[in-house]
């Protein structure tokens, strides 16, 4: 468990800031924190201007206004369809999951009392008793069965349909017990159930114009693309929280406008602030920032089944050509950790720290390109604002290429339709992957031979079999070793270049207390509403 | 920006100095700035001290220094170089779009004025209907459909401004068309192409040129508005509007990265306005 | 000896031309006006007559300013006053009757509002009183329905009425001096008489002094006590009306008077190819109109069953007042406005109604010359290229041959060859009209349709154009169809005359015997309404009021 | 003028043309949307758009019907006053739009109330004292405003009034509107920004239109009657310049409904422009269509209104 140390002072705070500004790497920063007696936060999280967090006595009451970065008429209260941060925030406020991940990435029980299995294939979920929905109905196994089975129905359009497919049987045992049988052993099921999409809704719900959940807040108003207003649930089943009487959530897509709204005091939380705005926030007593490095990354994908990626030397060259330090320092303004071309970030307990990032070496890159016979050929790199920072990253790579006579052309394409038209399709393109709680989800989603999002068309039988084996392995040490090896395989063999794990920076009013980082994403893994309070 | 702009060039200067096509000093300053940017657009890439995409400074939103004359941008790239490169795109795209829009609009407008009848009616209605769609939204749809490249930009901008040019040219051409010299030519048996090119066109050229200038200004601004929506030239290059847009976070810091591109845009648009408002009346009002 | 009401001493007015040059347009003019006296300023365009008249109100048009001299009106020194002080004099001491009342009335306000505006501006009297006074003036000006005409909008009354209403507008403030700026020029002759009469009687009753600006000696003769002849911003001659008309001293005055003398037309000797008996132009039951077509008939029918015949080498005059359809006739014949019924035959060959369907040959045979020389020449082309185009178009001439022919054409209309390099804007009105003629001649036509080609020109210049037409006819054996509202012009050049009224030909007769033989009442009215160079003509004129009521366009 | 061409005939003719235009636009918008890559099912699923998932969702949403029949269905519904149901969130389009449209109209209304009187006053003033210092200052100001990108004006306004001075809220929507002063505050920023943007054009056009009528003989006549400059301009020139001024105002105002996307984005104001942008990015056809119709209707009705003002202000056309 991570705790912000009580001897944390404003001076340390300033020192951290200073270091970040000078471009200190994440690692250096952590080293410094260690040396000063601070345990590194498991999620790599850190509250800047941490003074406010010290007075950690929750205060009840008050009304919070928070702004996310995207919202549209596609906003939904249906957890299965949730796709934007806005949706997650709302779902976390109105519903509950069976399990959730804490700041350290450990599975904690929420609606479930226990999630247990002997063989990692047949699972039994025991529910807490006496939990009620907003409409007064008591939570039962039927609700859980309904909520989970929905994901298997294609007409629902669930985002986690492919993950849910492994649940071959979901059945009610008794009023408070549900049995889940998997197609193959998977020790990660408790973690999988903490995904935002697996929120529990009342049996038979089809109308999502209102939210009827068990959550800490009751939905008072919901206007898609505009805002939602929530009031405190007086019958919330948890002993602690929520502290806020009400909170309003909406999106201000323009970064600058979001920051300005925070600075002018119109909102108390501005999610996901562009690091470019940091200088605006510096020296403002009324705001502080919460930085989370959860494992979100923007990566450069080179398809191995198409030219030019079919030439191994091209892929190798590109790995040397990506100036990770410049991407981390200039593009991401230091709010990132340098990545080592594999998807499991330091926030994850299975992260392989021995795998060193590839050093920027244009000469080696040139050697490989020459060997591939591609020096001077125009090669388009497809980037888009849809994959955050990808355009700037592409510029950095393009610039490095032009120094050695490699003609890489940045092709910026519209955000709209990027995921269906370019991502996974173009020979060289950028992608953006949100943090996933387990290596298994990442691997099976992105790197197994039949992965739906196999970004570089990486195919390895050895990798596939290791994945299945690790999934069912209940021996933690063996599992870790296998995951480390698989990370190495990805870094060296796949065509996905992951230059950095991007930190999420939320800017909040200094009156806001209780905000901590979470490996599931910014804003406390989107679940901040029930944990935060407003100091007077 | 405006969905539709029917430009009535105000007659500010009843007095003209000197005979013939001479400008007053305000017009001269305007012309000088326009020419300056035109030259920069052509030779800019050779003047730029750095490639537009090169990150030259670890710092961002850097101040004006002797190495970076206009500071650095959000990535630490040299703004001076980027503005020099951007001139080519801003001036070039706006010029191409305005030329295309006006050429097409003027030709169609003249044909509609001469042909009259249902051709005129249908074309006017169609373009009117098109005018009803806000231009930025139109731009947005285009981005969504075909992405962003220079030809797409030019065509989109031209499409946005063509109906206005059409309307303007048609109104002028209708006036000229009723003049006796056109009737004389028609009575002589001349065909439509002759009427349009030889009789009408020379007499609407002056106001059309003035209109072209004003449209140019709006196109420069809409171009910057489109970059707000993500339709712009491909990185690492950027037009001035995009430079303002991508560095707008620097505004509150007073970063030169946002101020200089804004000044560049304003200097171009204001000078075009100055130039047009002070055009010798001989050119502006020849058909009146 | 009483002091004159107005005295103008050494008035100099300068202007800045479009090109920025400064020129003096009034070069030291001095004259007096006694109280109650009507003085006419007469001259051709550019003589400065309107400029002088406006300067009496302290007003100069854009680009002009008073450079020297002084103007005294009553006790006020106009030239020394501030703009605000001048405004207080305008309307009360001196007022203005504009050339075109139609343009000078604000189209969006009721007439009464505008007539009594002077009283409102200067707070002369309460509104009710002002309206009462206006109605009295309407009566005095012989306006119909004097009680209610003020409630109408300007577009709802006729031009002649509007002109009289503008006089009421000027008189409402009981000024000491009224300036009439060509107030009848835009009117038809039959209307002009009534307006002149009304002006004359109110001026006499009110005992006001007046300045009457005009280019028309015959009109001026009816109303002015004294005439000042102007040319190029200088006074040529001053004298009583009687003296100027009977015994002009200055050669320029004599020239002006000479231009008024009717020159009887000598029919051209029967042309050489008289063997061909077919008339050059023949029109049967021609009907034409404007507006959307319904059942093959346009909404607004203008021409109704016009028939006539024009023999080769002869000239046909078409006279009528505004709205008579005479210009429409020319357009229908030329095919610009396709006739919807009837036939046009040239040289015995029937032409298609629409010019698009006529052959080049048909088009070439018949050419048209328009009234306004300014708008008939493309301002963007040089004279040379304007004349060259028909040569290329009809005859395929190019290069040297074409150039030679252009020079020849210019010579035919008595213009120097060097003129071909100029733009139309640099030519005078007379020169432009000659170029227009030359362009028609370039097609080597047999027939030229002349639509009011002398109406916009000064009398002397117009006379010269008529001379030229006759000369060309003698040399080239042309036929003219000559459209005009001016009887004397038609008499001067035509063999036969058609009198048109409301789209119909009411009478056709030989030009020479028009005055004596016209039988149709409208023809008679028209003929009797033409002002004569005789100071007593208007007072002596008697017209049948019923006839006037039936036909005059008032 | 022939009897049948009365103003009513003109009005009816204009309305008919407007209706026809609407149909053309809806048709064009429909097929433009069809041409866009991706459909609502793919977009909704985003990264999760596997072929099977997309096919399933498409089937569920009824997207497999032919495009034309969907268009006709929508058009028929429209005639019956039914704008259809949003593909994306199954809500009635009417419900989605009504609130947003109200917001847009509120913003447009307040901006109109502020900008039109100011713009007309400045334009007329500049024309009245043509060539004076006032005229020149107005000219320089309008040119400057025209020359600055809108998002720049908006961002600067936020920085100055909300962040630095703290006088006004940075966001308009959802702000406290319980009292009049609070409401004025809430609307101040977008209204200031939009007023800047739309006024410049109106000022220029008004000035040009008035100057044109000042050069007519009837205004000279008023001068010769001894009228003051004020009387000449306000009493004589202005009534006749109403037509062109109304046209300029209509064009500027039509921008306020659909063209304010940048202002809506920066001030987080939920209006129809943003709704349309959302609709386009999710390919939500019924919503796109309905928004496009709204823009078109507002544009056409403003233009038609301007035409009618021109007709009514001209006694020659009015009867």
Automatic annotation (TrEMBL), chain A:
Coiled coil: none annotated. Its main location: periplasm. GO terms for biological process: peptide transport. Residues 107-450 form the Solute-binding protein family domain. PROSITE patterns: TAT. One of its GO terms (molecular function) is peptide transmembrane transporter activity. Keywords: Signal, Transport. The keyword DNA damage does not apply. InterPro entries: Peptide/Ni-bd, SBP_5, SBP_5_dom, TAT_signal. It is found in: Periplasm. SUPFAM superfamilies: Periplasmic binding protein-like II. One of its GO terms (cellular component) is ATP-binding cassette (ABC) transporter complex. Belongs to the bacterial solute-binding protein 5 family. This is Peptide/nickel transport system substrate-binding protein. The lineage of its organism: Bacteria, Pseudomonadati, Pseudomonadota, Alphaproteobacteria, Rhodobacterales.
UniProtKB/TrEMBL annotation, chain B:
The chain crosses the membrane at residues 25-48, 89-116, 136-161, 212-233, 253-276. InterPro entries: BP-dependent_transpt_permease, MetI-like, MetI-like_sf, OppC_N. Gene3D superfamilies: MetI-like. One of its GO terms (biological process) is transmembrane transport. It holds the Pfam family BPD_transp_1. The keyword Transcription regulation does not apply. Its main location: membrane. GO terms for cellular component: plasma membrane. Keywords: Cell membrane, Membrane, Transmembrane, Transmembrane helix, Transport. This is Peptide/nickel transport system permease protein. It comes from Alloyangia pacifica. The lineage of its organism: Bacteria, Pseudomonadati, Pseudomonadota, Alphaproteobacteria, Rhodobacterales.
Automatic annotation (TrEMBL), chain C:
It is a peripheral membrane protein. Residues 8-257, 281-527 form the ABC transporter domain. One of its GO terms (biological process) is peptide transport. GO terms for cellular component: plasma membrane. It holds the Pfam family ABC_tran. It is found in: Cell inner membrane. Keywords: ATP-binding, Nucleotide-binding, Transport. The keyword Nucleotide-binding applies. GO terms for molecular function: ATP binding; ATP hydrolysis activity. Belongs to the ABC transporter superfamily. PANTHER family: D,D-DIPEPTIDE TRANSPORT ATP-BINDING PROTEIN DDPF-RELATED, TRANSPORT ATP-BINDING PROTEIN. This is Peptide/nickel transport system ATP-binding protein. It comes from Alloyangia pacifica. The lineage of its organism: Bacteria, Pseudomonadati, Pseudomonadota, Alphaproteobacteria, Rhodobacterales.
TrEMBL record, chain D:
The keyword Cell membrane applies. Residues 101-306 form the ABC transmembrane type-1 domain. CDD domains: TM_PBP2 (cd06261). Keywords: Cell membrane, Membrane, Transmembrane, Transmembrane helix, Transport. It is found in: Cell membrane. One of its GO terms (cellular component) is plasma membrane. It is a multi-pass membrane protein. The chain crosses the membrane at residues 12-32, 67-87, 107-129, 141-167, 179-198, 241-267, 287-312. InterPro entries: BPD_transp_1_N, MetI-like, MetI-like_sf. SUPFAM superfamilies: MetI-like. GO terms for biological process: transmembrane transport. Belongs to the binding-protein-dependent transport system permease family. This is Peptide/nickel transport system permease protein. It comes from Alloyangia pacifica.
